[in-house]
Design a protein that fits this description.
This protein is of the alpha/beta class and 283 residues long. It folds into two domains: 173 residues, Rossmann fold; 92 residues, Pantoate--beta-alanine Ligase, Chain: A,domain 2 (2-Layer Sandwich), CATH 3.30.1300.10. It is built from ten helices and nine strands. The structure holds adenosine monophosphate.
Length: 283
């Protein structure tokens, strides 16, 4: 049985813990999360354990990546269960700052990202989002000084934005993406899935099923526009209000005209009632 994780809530406590880690050799991994942990988060932790001697997990529901109309207040918070899960996984450190620690009175700096952050996907519908994410992740990287950081492909544009930011700012962190963990019926695991009613939960896997079928059509040589339009129709017919369903270059997220412009990623965001779901697959 490994030692229970150190829980740090203040910067001095975090530094003390990290000093102890740095005194010993071996890489440090960081897994940033907003808590309400599920098997997708645990997969990131397990990957981190394989790649690094020490694993830190941050749990911080970051207000600056939520618009006033979004679900910051009601975002699921399951602290006790999260700590138990991370302890069972042998995590070394849980970094759980409060909002005042991350954004003290007078806080006035933001990291603004371009490139993948302005690809016209999430940024079109959540214009505040990537500045919030880049700023908080930049802070987490500087606070924790990890060698590697693990992010889920589930949030594909975010993964690209964070990797670009770490590179551009010479933060010395290698950003590693991990495959999306899904429920048995294909729905991508998400802390927000608890918002779905039983009926919506039944419909939700249509997103993944449609993306997979569309990817298969494209691999079979179907016309890109026709395949995407067909997919969009199926998603809408199932009861979703579609924000976007797009084929993009998997690295740059630039629009593509044909499968030959690849590697291609299909990305989707759609509302099911008042719950917004996102997902993506490789072609
Ligand atoms: P969140 O707590 O939703 O901010 O997510 C924290 C990290 O977990 C991010 O890097 C997400 O991309 C990742 N993540 C969330 N859901 C999944 C999933 N179903 N599979 C893999 N990674 C995930």
């Amino acid at each position: 049985m490994s030692r229970p994780p150190i829980i740090a809530r203040t910067l001095p406590a975090l530094r003390r813990a990290l000093d102890g880690f740095h005194a010993k050799s071996g890489a440090i991994a960081l897994v940033p999360t907003m808590g309400a942990l599920h098997d997708g988060h645990v997969a990131l932790v397990r990957l981190a354990k394989r790649r690094a001697a020490r694993v830190a997990v941050s749990i911080f529901v970051n207000p600056s990546q939520f618009a006033p109309t979004e679900d910051f207040g009601s975002y699921p918070r399951t602290w006790k269960a999260d700590v138990a899960r991370l302890a069972a996984e042998g995590v070394d450190l849980i970094w759980n700052p409060d909002v005042k620690t991350m954004y003290p009175a007078g806080f006035a700096t933001r990291i603004l990202t371009e490139g993948p952050a302005t690809a016209g996907l999430e940024d079109r519908f959540r214009p505040h989002f990537f500045a919030g994410v880049a700023t908080v992740v930049g802070k987490l990287f500087m606070q924790c000084r990890p060698d590697i950081a693990l992010f889920g492909e589930k949030d594909f544009q975010q993964l690209r934005v964070v990797a670009q930011m770490a590179r551009d700012l010479d933060l010395g962190v290698r950003v590693i993406g991990a495959p999306t963990v899904r429920e048995r019926d294909g729905l991508a695991m998400s802390s927000r899935n608890v918002y779905l009613s039983p009926e919506q939960r039944r419909v939700a896997p249509v997103l993944y099923r449609t993306m997979k079928a569309t990817a298969q059509r494209l691999r079979g040589g179907d016309d890109l526009d026709a395949a995407m339009a067909g997919g969009a129709e199926l998603i809408t017919a199932a009861g979703f209000a579609l924000d976007y369903f797009e084929a993009r270059h998997a690295q740059t997220l630039a629009p593509v005209q044909s499968i030959k412009d690849g590697p291609i990623r299909l990305l989707v965001a759609a509302m099911l009632g008042s719950t917004r779901l996102i997902d993506n697959v490789a072609v």
